[in-house]
Specification:
alpha/beta, seven-stranded parallel beta sheet, Ala_racemase/Decarboxylase_C, PLP-binding_barrel
Length: 233
């Protein structure tokens, strides 16, 4: 075990699993049964990670990003542990629903979704009216209205600040990822009048590590200010 793994384990978190951590005979039996290459995951570790998150954030609604792993058993496991499932494509929405996740715990959040995806997700919503969609542009709101959607709709905000392990995955400050704070109140008012307004959303970035939380605090502050402004209106 490396120093980093020991540190994670001593801090209460699971160590990164390497090949040596797995039972050799189990892996050999799986390879013999299914052939190789073979993707193996451990539901017990998935459950452990979910429980650690819920223990760390007991008052939060935690949503699992389906794009991390869309196998039905993974989706079922995270949902059994109390997590909702956020989907970045229509295909992920279909996988989540096929896995038995109720529409009330499925959220579709995409960047500039193609027409086919919107058609598919709106069709899924018609059968699962509690499903939530996140719109990151006024144009997406228009396109949803054209398709007859009037259900639960969140507004994705670009708060002007983000974080991530590389500049290409810092989404919070990029104009591609959500509407600006200056435009948000007007679009939110429209959503509130034509849809079931389900709140605001922001994504700081991906691969975030380290102890520097300044950008996160600023993102939360800006989103909190916006939420209070919208509630006051």
């Amino acid at each position: 075990m490396s120093d980093e793994e020991r540190a994670a384990a001593s801090d209460g978190g699971p160590a990164v699993r390497r090949l040596d951590d797995w039972d050799r005979s189990t892996l050999e039996a799986l390879a013999a049964e299914h052939g190789t290459p073979l993707y193996v995951f451990d539901p017990a570790r998935v459950r452990e990670n979910c429980r650690r998150l819920r223990a760390a954030f007991p008052d939060a609604e935690i949503q699992y990003a389906a794009k991390a792993h869309t196998a039905g058993e993974t989706l079922q496991t995270v949902h059994d542990e109390g997590l909702a499932v956020e989907c970045a494509s229509a295909g992920e929405v279909r996988r989540a629903l096929r896995a038995g996740i109720p529409g009330s715990d499925v959220i579709y959040t995409a960047v500039n979704p193609p027409a086919g995806d919107l058609d598919s997700v709106v069709e899924a919503w018609q059968e699962n009216p509690e499903l939530t969609i996140t719109a990151g542009a006024a144009d997406t709101v228009d396109r949803l209205a054209e398709r007859g959607f009037d259900g639960r709709l969140r507004l994705r905000i670009n708060p002007g600040v983000g974080a991530g392990h590389h500049e290409k995955v810092v989404t919070g400050g990029h104009p591609k990822f959500g509407v600006g704070l200056d435009r948000a109140p007007d679009i939110a008012a429209r959503i509130d009048g034509e849809f079931a307004f389900a709140g605001i959303h922001a994504h700081a970035g991906s691969g975030i590590s380290g102890d520097d939380l300044a950008n996160h605090r600023e993102l939360v502050r800006r989103m909190g200010d916006l939420a209070r402004e919208l509630e006051a209106d």
